Amino acid sequence: MPKEKKLCNSILATIVLYNTSLEQSQTFRSLSKSLLYSSDRLEVLVYDNSPNRMYTGKKHSSWHIHYFHDPANSGVSKAFNHGGALAKALGKKWLLLLDQDTLFPSEAINIYGNEIKENIAGLLAPYLFFKRKLISPFSLKSGEGRIINHIQPGSYSLDQVMPVNSGLLINVEDFWSCGGYNESFPLDYSDFAFIERFRKIHPDFKIIELTCEHQFSGLEQFGNKQATLQRFKHFCNSTLKYKREVNPLLNSNKLIIRRAVRLGMIYKSISFLRAALLALNNK
To answer: Which residue intervals define the domain Glycosyltransferase 2-like in the entry (predicted)?
Structure first.
């Protein structure tokens, strides 16, 4: 009797690294345990945005690894498009998008496998929590994300509820039918810009019964002030670009000033407010 085909055979995962080795990535480590738990194997593109290579070429029994190093740090949108292109070339049906710092439970692979066996939805999303707070999916109002205290699994309109990138399982054909990720949003608003495209071909998505822990940089305390200031300037530019090119209803001034004030309080510095005012004056 022929061996039953594993459901993971139809999935290509894409994990984006930045200054963290593959083996130290919380996502990779937790999914490795999940693969052992399910006795399955997964093909993955490791897209490395770090200045120096974060993967040595080490073999892992539960993974078939493709590696691409992008020292220019082109961002997650380009990484996910690279994964989408590879998935199409390999004849995969599903693309699993992963940040480097999501903690998946041991049953994650089995849950994904059962979902794609039983559902035809083009976009599936898990629950992501940060410090016991649900950060994905979240509600949308005038283009701004708002935390939901509780939401049941099931299908929801992408006009009202939206997931973030990590953990998304997307039908490859649908991924390319909507044009994939918008590479002019390399990091900030990458998920917003993608969902804006995706909902034009599929207005709904499904929240699945999979709960993960995620390190969400927008809610964390930061370290180096100059690095954070530079990161904030990129956020300002992306916010204004998103309002200008995608969603004119977005209250960009409020978002930028609010983050500037929060970072200014963390670092006890007015540099962030100055950067915010400069960006808003030059918009």
So the answer is: 15-110
**Cα torsion 257, 259, 261, 264: sign:** negative
HEC states along the chain? CCCCCCHHHHEEEEEEECCCCHHHCHHHHHHHHHHHHHCCCEEEEEEECCCCCCCCCCCCCCEEEEEEECCCCCCHHHHHHHHHHHHHHCCCCEEEEECCCEECCCCHHHHHHHHHHHCCCCEEEEEEEECCEEEECEEEECCEEECCCCCCCEEEECCCEECCCCCCEEEHHHHHHCCCCCCCCCCCCHHHHHHHHHCCCCCEEEEEEEEEEECCHHHCCCCCHHHHHHHHHHHHHHHHHHHHHCCCCCCHHHHHHHHHHHHHHHHCCCHHHHHHHHHHHCC
Q: Which residues partner with 206 through β-bridges?
A: 124, 155
> What's the CA dihedral at 158, 26, 85, 161 to 10 degrees?
0
CATH 2.70.150.10 fits 7-217, yes or no: no
Arithmetic mean of pLDDT, 255-277: 95
Q: Which band of pLDDT confidence, cut at 50, 70 and 90, is reported for residue 178?
A: very high
pLDDT tens-place string over residues 76-114: 999 999 999 999 999 999 999 999 999 999 999 999 999
Domain boundaries, the chain: 7-217, 221-281
pLDDT at 14 over 90: yes
